[in-house]
From TrEMBL:
Pfam families noted in UniProt: HTH_1, LysR_substrate
Name of the protein this chain belongs to: LysR family transcriptional regulator
Domain HTH lysR-type, chain residue ranges per copy: 1-59
Family: Belongs to the LysR transcriptional regulatory family.
Keyword Transmembrane helix: no
Keywords, alphabetical: DNA-binding, Transcription, Transcription regulation
PANTHER family: HTH-TYPE TRANSCRIPTIONAL REGULATOR (PTHR30126), TRANSCRIPTIONAL REGULATOR-RELATED (PTHR30126:SF88)
Record carries keyword Protein biosynthesis: no
Length: 294
């Protein structure tokens, strides 16, 4: 490491044209820099610099060797930047659990903002359903959780509300039934029960519950919201989607149902207490709040 540092000092001396300007940039005395270069020359057995017209210049060998060292110097500077970030933020890896109901585009927006401010911190995202996120949070597997389920005695920040609406693909019998209904007529719960429902499996490892209204006897249970949407689109069943996502699925029909059938829940954001002072986790929290549903 000392040799790499000295090569960096030598590069700075040559770039700035002398020991004095290099010492001002490097915050080292000229004698310290000069001594380090001489020590390097002794260790490798090659003369790197010479003085001509009272100006330090590279020897031919020094010029060739420095050219080979420059890529390594750049890599070392990059590693130092990583070290400084980890020392200042204490976060080399950011682990967060986000319920699948949170819009993907807004999640990506938050992650992009975070990555700009903390480029060296690795991100590990857990896409959860219902109790999966709180379970990871309680086990300290993640530092941040964003979702619909409360987490024990932790106090969260509400970042929005999610309303769920029933949706079907264009070829589903319920879609045709809606087309034939008089304007203003609504579907009752009993009419939904007659059709197969697509539901999400709770990602909590010890739970058997599923996400969404479970009135239908026939069900298809899946792990991911994207799979559920594709099944609805195919006409294999109806399902409940976050209202904001249903608006983006132009080929799905939102079923008009009686009042009180559409569930609604608060979207909450939690952070581990011991991470309250972490600048990286604070940045991620702010990024998720700014990208939230409002």
């Amino acid at each position: 490491m000392d040799d790499f540092r000295t090569w960096h000092w030598l590069e700075t001396v040559i770039e700035l044209g002398g020991l004095k300007p290099a010492s001002e940039r490097l915050h080292r005395t000229p004698s310290t820099i000069s001594h380090a270069i001489k020590q390097l020359e002794r260790r490798i057995g090659v003369t790197l610099v010479e003085t001509r017209a009272r100006r330090i210049q590279l020897t031919e060998a020094g010029s060739i060797l420095l050219e080979h060292m420059r890529p390594l110097i750049r890599e070392l500077e990059g590693v130092r930047g990583v070290i400084e970030q980890f020392r200042d933020t204490g976060a080399s890896v950011m682990r967060l659990a986000v319920d699948q109901v949170f819009p993907h585009d807004r999640l990506i927006q938050a992650m992009e903002r975070f990555s700009t401010d903390f480029p060296h911190t690795r991100l590990e995202l857990f896409e959860t359903v219902l109790g999966g996120g709180p379970a990871l949070f309680r086990d300290a597997e993640v530092g941040i959780y964003l979702g619909l389920e409360p987490v024990g005695d932790h106090t969260g920040v509400q970042v929005g509300r999610v309303r769920f609406v029933p949706c079907v693909g264009p070829g589903h019998p319920l879609a045709r039934e809606v087309e034939a209904m008089p304007a203003g007529q609504l579907l009752a719960e009993g009419q939904l029960r007659q059709h197969r429902q697509v539901v999400l499996r709770d990602s909590h490892p010890e739970r058997g519950a599923n996400a969404g209204w479970l009135g239908a006897a026939q069900r298809i249970t899946v792990d991911h919201l994207h799979t559920a949407v594709e099944l609805m689109r195919s006409g294999l069943g109806f399902g409940w989607l976050p209202e904001h996502q249903a608006r983006d699925e132009s080929d799905l029909t939102v079923l008009p149902v009686e009042e009180g059938l559409c569930p609604e829940a608060a979207l909450m954001l939690y952070r581990q207490r011991e991470l309250m002072a972490s600048p990286a986790h604070q940045c991620m929290m702010e990024s998720l709040v700014d990208s939230s549903l409002g």
